[in-house]
Amino acid sequence: MASIEAGAVSGQGGWRGPLRRGGRARARIPGRRVAQTSTGALREASCGTRPEAAADTPRMFHVKRANSGAAPSRAGCARYPRWPLGTIYAIANQKGGVGKTTTAVNLAACIAEAGYRTLLIDIDAQANATVALGIDKHTEPSVYDVLRGDVTAAEAVIDTSIDGLSLLPSNPDLAAATVELAREAGSDGRLRDALEGIREDYRFILLDCPPSLGPLTINALVAADRVIVPVQAEYFALEGLAGLLDTLGLIQRRLNPRLAIAGMLLTMHDTRTRLSHDVEREVREHFPELVFKTVIPRNVRISEAPSYGIPVIHHDPHSNGATAYFDLAKEMVARG
């Protein structure tokens, strides 16, 4: 797995070619400097392609409408095949409102619909991903209990109304973990250690991170193999990219050598505005092989779906938003 530091990206969807100009990498919109990444920020982030990727190409996505009224049950994975080790993806960006939770929920649902056993872990105290799947945000045990060591991850995982998709729910109590983890030395690997016992039960594990670079996000990045970075198609969404890339590079060097960037995902893209097109062009110019081809549009069906406790692919499977997330799932699985 390639390292994350300043320089170039190799591999499909990874860094290739120097991004620096005079020792600093720039991402800017015409007439405005948006972000700068220091020389030590990023050298390489490759998602790579597994030799068996062709055999893992998803079957045709077939939407089965979920029974949103189904009560959650504790997940039993014995009926599903065990994988050598599931790939863990963190959906991370310290800026809020860029589509992290929406992407985590809908991407997980699409992958599960494709026939891959999938686990979504909500590590945001707001518990939005939990609620978006129709699960009460006060469900216990939760990921907070797992991080405290009170229960194992297997004991906290529950089934959702979507076949093949399980959830490790969040709880408002998780807010306390931000303080508790910061006080304890060596707590950065709590989530990684907790997932060791269940990784082989799932082909994909997605982590919905909070909008910060605090202890919970650090735990997610230490546990992850790859990172998906949602980037809203607006000016301010690009401002924090430099800090995020610096953080990823630091974690890769010090805590998680296998960490790589799977790709940047443009979200809330409005084809009617010049701004969205300008942001997309600039991001693709500066990160040419890192940005996913799929673009998530601004779509009312995506916004409505959480109020029904189901992903957009079950709320309106023929909407532009559902189509976009299906395409993203296919692209992500194909990348490996």
How is the secondary structure organized here?
Blueprint: E1 20-21, E2 24-29, E3 32-37, E4 87-91, H1 100-113, E5 118-122, H2 128-132, H3 143-148, H4 153-156, E6 158-159, E7 165-168, H5 175-183, H6 190-195, E8 204-208, H7 215-223, E9 226-232, H8 235-239, H9 241-254, E10 260-269, H10 274-286, E11 291-297, H11 300-308, H12 312-315, H13 320-335
Helix pairs in contact: 1-13
Fold and architecture overview:
The protein has helices spanning 100-113, 128-132, 143-148, 153-156, 175-183, 190-195, 215-223, 235-239, 241-254, 274-286, 300-308, 312-315, 320-335, and strands at residues 20-21, 24-29, 32-37, 87-91, 118-122, 158-159, 165-168, 204-208, 226-232, 260-269, 291-297. The strands form two sheets. An eight-stranded mixed β-sheet has the order 6-7-5-8-4-9-10-11, with helices on both faces. The protein has a three-stranded antiparallel β-sheet with strand order 1-2-3. Residues 1-83 have low confidence and may be disordered. It is globular. Helix 1 packs across helix 13. It is built from 13 helices and eleven strands. The chain is of the alpha/beta class.
